Amino acid sequence: MIIDFNAYLGQWPFRRLPARTADEVLAIMDRHGITMSAVSSLSSVLYADPQDGNLELMEEIEKERKRFVPLAVLNPKYPGWESDLDECVSHGFRGIRLYPQSHDYALTDEECLKLVSRASEAGLSVSVPVRLRDGRGRHWMDRARDLKLSEVEQLARRVPGAKIVLLESRDVSSSPIVECQNVYFETSSMPSLLGGELAKLLRSVGASRLVFGSGTPLKYALPAILKVKLLDGPEEAKEKILWSNASRLLGLG
Amino acid sequence: MSRIDCHSHVASRFWDAGGLTPESLVNAADKLGIDVLCCSTPIVRGMPTPEEFAASNEDLLKAMEEYPGKILGYCFVNPGYQTESLAEIERRVAEDGMVGIKLYNQYKCSDPVVYPIVRKAIELGVPILQHAGYLTDPEEAALQPNISNARDIAFLASMFPEAAIIEAHLGGGGDWEWALKNLRNARNVYMDTSGSVVDAGMVEKAVRYLGAERLLFGTDLSMEEGVGKVLDACISEGDRQLIFGENMKKILGRRAR
């Protein structure tokens, strides 16, 4: 069983993606044996009002609720996030995703701290990507910065009850952020072979704080799968990474 | 299906590559079914002297001797030292069995200083692996003011239609779509698929623009990404075989003996 904690549906304006709809992403999941994917709306990253993307996502996955777990994109700087959060919870969203780089705020801004606290009280995990694309070739209208680990660390310390999932991080095993017990790490950008970053992180934080993600449909899924399969670690740890930790974070039982 | 990694590296006295050893590289390659690693040891900052690039190539030669047939070598030179570069290439290819030439970012490849190197490559029947990128982020671009981009490479290729030029890292050279559009009609330019970027659809689009015959599998030490993106691409099995090894095998077969 595999649960993908780092997947998306919707439009990405800077490049044509080979899969955008639920059916197209399902085909990728089926090809790779991915049982479920935690998805958020890519459109919400650039919509002024991300709630419209969340509602579009709900419509898109309506017939496939057993395969897709919705995560809500919210912007704490935009009015109405409180009621948007309530609405998302009532629709069965199981977590939130934040894009401070695109929505132009810091994770430690007061409004963001309030949002993270409210989401955590509602039992939702909070995922934040370090980046959505490699900055070396960014589109001229895409000025989003890479997130600094220190910013995530501060958020984790200021809201200790939050369960924060850091997506798309690379070299974290020697960073102080590993000391934050409420931070989980998604694995798609960490090599298992040369450098062994994933194995180092496994030794450093234990298997319970690692979750598999692929970046589908922004990225090919197979490289991320290979990294976990080739990880130098016990099968029990791989099971935790591939699905059981995600299942717990998403409240799937 | 043989897998030839056309873009890899071993550590040298100038770059420790995070503790990389020939053994760790070969072990990683074995786990991913990579049969051959075409490696280089470029000096990536400054203007390396002939003594320095010769020493760097010496370190590569040791790795080749440790893993004969598994680790092959590209001779790295700084074209600014023309006489010494030509002599170094002659020695490393003809005597030491290196299979190509590696150029980095000391000069743009469209600079006439590079032309004698290309003539030598044609004479010896070996490819040039050109470090390249179209870096749209100004901070990244400022770090490599003389990095060659696809337009520079297409220009060089038009000057020397007999040369086999490999543009490095589809997945590590910035805007890869820009690169593909510039290389579409540059028939003697190959693109390697290496690099950490695994944007979904990139291999398929590269096949559409260049044809599978002009794509070469590579990792640039991003091992899982390198193999994963080619395996995951929605292309025919025939095209996959061309990319994984058959194209590079043909290129390597052109070397004058």
Description:
The complex is a heterodimer of chains A (253) and B (257). With 253 residues, chain A is of the alpha/beta class. Helix content of chain A is 38%, strand content 14%. Chain A has one domain (3-249): TIM Barrel, CATH 3.20.20. Chain A has helices spanning 22-32, 43-46, 50-61, 81-90, 100-103, 110-121, 149-158, 197-205, 222-229, 235-249, and strands spanning 3-9, 36-41, 68-70, 72-73, 95-97, 125-129, 164-167, 183-186, 210-211. Chain A has a 6-stranded parallel β-sheet. Chain A is globular and about 45 Å long. Chain B has 257 residues and is of the alpha/beta class. Chain B has helices at residues 22-31, 50-66, 82-95, 115-124, 138-143, 150-159, 176-183, 202-210, 223-232, 237-252; strands at residues 4-9, 36-40, 71-76, 100-103, 128-130, 165-167, 189-192, 215-216. Chain B has an 8-stranded parallel β-sheet with strand order 1-2-3-4-5-6-7-8, sandwiched between helices. In chain B, α3 runs parallel beside α4. The radius of gyration of chain B is 17 Å and the shape is globular. The chains are: A alpha/beta (253), B alpha/beta (257). The interface between A and B is large, with 33 and 40 residues.
Task: Give the CATH H-level superfamily of chain B.
Answer: Metal-dependent hydrolases
Q: Trace the largest sheet of chain A across and list its strands.
A: 4-5-6-7-8-9
> Whole-number radius of gyration of chain B?
17 Å
In total, the number of domains of chain B comes to 1
What CATH architecture of chain A do you see?
Alpha-Beta Barrel
Strand order of the largest sheet of chain B: 1-2-3-4-5-6-7-8
Bin the helical content of chain A.
Answer: 25-40%
CA radius of gyration of chain A: 17 Å
State the CATH topology of chain A.
Answer: TIM Barrel
CATH fold label of chain B: TIM Barrel
What structural class is derived from the secondary structure elements of chain A? alpha/beta
What is the N-to-C order of secondary-structure elements of chain A (H for helix, E for strand)?
EHEHHEEHEHHEHEEHEHH
Average pLDDT taken over every residue of chain A: 97
List the helices and strands of chain B in order: EHEHEHEHEHHEHEHEHH
Overall average pLDDT of chain B: 97
Shape of chain B: globular
Which percent range describes the beta-strand content of chain B? 5-15%
**CATH class categorisation of chain B:** Alpha Beta
How many E strands of chain B?
A: 8
Number of distinct helices of chain A: 10
Described by strand count, sense and barrel closure, the largest sheet of chain A is: 6 strands, parallel
